[in-house]
Amino acid sequence: MKRLADQHKSISKFLSLVLRHEPGAIGIALDPNGWVSVEKLLDALAAHGKPLARAELEEVVATSDKRRFAFNSDGSMIRANQGHSVDVDLGLRPMIPPDILYHGTVPRYVPSIRAHGLVKGKRHHVHLSATRELAIVVGKRRGEPYVFQVDTRGMVAAGLVFYRSENGVWLTDHVPARFLDEDSRAG
To answer: Which of 86, 92, 68, 80 is nearest to 124 (CA)?
Structure first.
């Protein structure tokens, strides 16, 4: 069972690479909204030494802990839900977030976050979690978690815009440091 979970994790990481950052690594192109034909994806994976059956792809999508990927309504296309560094338009609409959201990180990034706030870097948006528990899970991916609480009510009042991806991750362009409260009790 653990071996299957590890295999799914490895597939999910590779899919994240090609559907969010480097589609050309396997010779595919994303459409303007980030979609690619499932058939083309599977053919390209096989051609690049990473064969994957349709049923395996469906299982990886269904069991992804963060629901990173989505199929279109008829299952013929697939895309990453967020986190792209390539130019795509996910068709997200502005939404009013809960008053408080959370961001999980690790201690080595805390000084920079205190100074500059949360910046999107090469991605399209800063990613925020709806619960402290989810933020801890995010932070644990890179080490001992450290959690910031985000005053989204204050950000909305200041005119900053939020979106929510299909998998429930909250997104915004930047979180200025003045809207962050430290909650280092994560670990």
So the answer is: 86
